[in-house]
Amino acid sequence: MPNSIDAILQISQQDRVLATSKKRLKTIPEKKKKLRIPVEKVEFHLDKLKEKEEEIYGKIRERETLVDVENEKIKKSDGKMAIIKNQKEYMASQKEIDIAKKTIKRVEDQILELEAHKEEISKQLSSVMEEYKQEKEVLSEKEQEVLNIEREILSKIDECKKSKAEVMLNVEPDVFKEYEELVNRDVIPAAVAISRSNCMGCAMAIPAQLFNEIMRDSFGRCPHCNRLLFYKAPEKPAEQPKKKTKPKKKAKK
Ligand SMILES: [Zn+2]
User: Fold this and answer.
1) In this model, does residue 2 exceed pLDDT 80?
2) pTM of the complete model
3) E strand or H helix at 6, and its extent?
4) What is the Å distance from ligand 1's center to 163 Cα?
């Protein structure tokens, strides 16, 4: 029987570690997700800048086409000038050319302005790109850390399961059945050792008579949380007076 008691207490301890490990494991996906937030922020900024750059490109291209169209108009008007018959036609062609030139001037000014803006955006882009690279590096380091933690937890879970399986052989089936019922109700640890009249699971006081019975039978149940309680005689405290050997050290050698 004592063997069985130790075994169930060990299993209880392992189940406790298992429960904490599983709880920790559950937080890993959320941790991984959170790690990505800074990179995602920079990515968002980067996308916005790229969009803006593309938009400016588009505006410049539109205006360049417009300049081409106006130049075409000037060419046509120039052609007309060669075969002009009167002053009125001359004036009309000249007016067309002037308007086209004015338009070109205005549009080219706009292009210059847009190009300056584009340059500004490009500068911002390269600095954000640098930031992005750094954040990615930080992310991969942190991801590695989380992966290591995850691996650690998984191997601990594995370890617990193995040692549980080993100890299981020593547990009396009836005791284990009662124990399992508690675990299934999430009462963890389900079996605890006590040496004082307090439950080591729920911390509540155990009535004196019940505690005496537990001391007598080595086993009982907590009247509050129903845990399996096993009595263990308190360990003898280390004798204090022995400490005074310390100052004597200098005597040797
Ligand atoms: Zn209790």
Assistant:
1) no
2) 0.70
3) helix 2-35
4) 26
